[in-house]
Every structure is written in structure tokens, then in C-alpha cells.
Amino acid sequence: MMHTQLFEGPMIRLAAIDPERDGAIEAAWTNDLDYARDLRLGPARPLGAQELQKNYEGLAAKMDAGSQFHYAIHLKDGDVLIGFVRIRSIFWIHGTAVFSLSFADDDLLRQYGPEALDLVFGYGFRELNLYRLETILPSYRQAAIDLFESAGFLMEARRRQAAYRNGRYWDVLNFGILQAEWKSREAEALAL
């Protein structure tokens, strides 16, 4: 689905992160063990609003340098924060980027994830002129895996038992999509 607005879809919009406001909201989300585990590589723990605020403020310099891009995902109706897009690793010489989507919960991911991915595609492939987008997911994140596969991402690598959670090891899956694959899917959708 093609949108003429770069940062706005039918129901959501991407916005600059407000360190104070968004930090306070996300701090509450980190009390959910699933969210906290997916947010950080280290041990899960609740994060304080000031800690998140400081982190967001540090990201501003990286965004200004063009090495990372971070956006809050808001519902257009009521301006409610529901998640984040984090483009953490951009390899300009190769035209590739590694990104993640994080939503307050899996229900929001299922409901608004496709639209958020559509905005990421538009931003990554049109605005940043990237050739390829990648994401990395542990195999226990089935809702996210379903979302990315339905959007045309292909699983390209499986790192066996590379993530530990709830007393067992899980595979870590690398997914990718090329700009040409996205354009082909977009053309098919427009032809329908």
C-alpha cells in the first residue's frame, strides 16, 4: 500500500521521540517482562523514566549524524504512544539497515504492525534510498515473525539456540527484504 505521506499512515504516524513524555510511558512498559527482554540485550529489568530519557537524548546526536534513526509510533486518534521504530545500524556503503519495531504489546503489533512496516518501507527505501532492510528476531516472538513474513521478509539465517529465555535456548532468526522485492509486492498490491 503506497502512502503519499512519509511519516503518516491511515491510523498511525511516526513522530520525533519526546524524551520526557515517551520515557515515562515506556518505563511503565518495561515492567512487562516480555517487553523488557525484547528491549535490551542484557538481563531484563524495569527501566526508569529518567534512564530512558537520558538514552533518548543521547540518540539525538546519532540521528543528527545520520547513523541511526528512531521514531515514536503514535495513534493519530488521540496522539497515543504505542511503540517505536528503531533503525539502529545503517551501512551506507552497502545501502543496508538493521531495524526493529517494538510495540507496547503483541495486540498492538498485530493491529498496527503492518501499517508501521509500510511507513518503514517508505522511509527506508524511498527517503533513505536503502537497498535492503533487515531485522533480527528470537524464535519465541511468533507474532513479530508472522508480521515480517507476511510483509515479504525472508528468513535468511538461523543462529541455533543463540538466545536464552524462560529456562531454555531459542534460535535467533535474521530476516531481510530487498528494495526490488518490496517494489514488486507494492506493484502487485496496487494492481489488485
Question: What this model shows, in words?
Answer:
There is one protein chain. The chain is α+β, with helices and mostly antiparallel strands. Helices cover 41% and strands 31% of the residues. It has helices spanning 19-29, 33-39, 49-65, 106-127, 142-150, 179-191; strands spanning 12-15, 69-75, 81-91, 96-103, 132-138, 154-165, 168-178. Strands 1-2-3-4-5-7-6 form a seven-stranded mixed sheet, sandwiched between helices. The protein starts with 11 loop residues before the first strand and ends with a helix. The model has no long low-confidence stretch (mean pLDDT 91).
Q: Which structural traits does this protein have?
A:
192 residues, Aminopeptidase, 7 strands, 6 helices, globular, alpha+beta
Compute the number of helices: 6
Helix content: 40-55%
- Distance between termini? 11 Å
Low-confidence stretches: none
Main pleated sheet: 7 strands, mixed
Number of strands: 7
Q: What characteristic shape results from the CA principal axes?
A: globular
